[in-house]
Please model this.
Amino acid sequence: MDINFKMGQTIKQIRISKGYSQQELCRDICHVNTLVKIESNTLSPSFEILRALAARMGLTVDDLIKRTELERDPFYVQIRTRLKKSVAKYDVGGMEQELSLLSDEMYEKLPPMEQQFIDVLKLALLLDTYKDFEAGYKLAKESLYKTYKDGATFFTDEECMLINNLLKIEQSEEHIALAKEAFEWVRKQDDSVQNGHCYILLLNGLTMTAFLQENWLELTEYAAIGEQVATKYDKARFMPIFIFMLGISDYMLAVNKERGLGEMKRALDYSLVMKNMFLYQALISYTKKYNIELK
Model:
């Protein structure tokens, strides 16, 4: 089973994305040392073990084979590598160019989770660049339900990002409930498997939702956690939002208006230091909305 022998990295990637520890995944299937060897590609699993591991992750052996074969496609691997570099550099033009190289035929051959990875990037263009919220909503909804099942007890990284996009488009009861479930799932994950990017995105989405709904107590909770998580994962670009929201919740609840004013001012200064004028102007507009004067 040559292809099985090379499946270790695939199994490891999916396990981590679904938030399973090695002990959780192999429980009642095989010894943890066996899984360690499988993931390091030093042991070829039997078909029975492979099928059991796949089933626990909500997949089939065929899904694992397709994902592993994908890693052997040099053209797609190059596209995906360049896409990840473009995302890391916030290079929208580069991302759009790489996506244009991906044909519909190649996209349809991708496993569902890999299609979702591409869909998340397409959503970034639809929502942030083209402001096409109708097309974005349709894509996010269809993409999410390629893998997500109602009542699921875990969320993949891709599902978390798709849910956050749905919340960004429409703050419906359904989307808020989904986002809260995904947030709690990520929040409870061990540091070794927790995805800081998904965590901060969901926190940002729930923070902004609480603000739009003027739910000041909930805003305080999410913004406080957000500031801690942004510090933990070095996500400085989110920091001004959480600082500002903590400040405005303090102010609106009249808990400590002076502290609230100080935090809002600190958030504005932070935005200027980061040279993020778009965020700066957005925060200024929030102060004007509530007739808050900052000295």
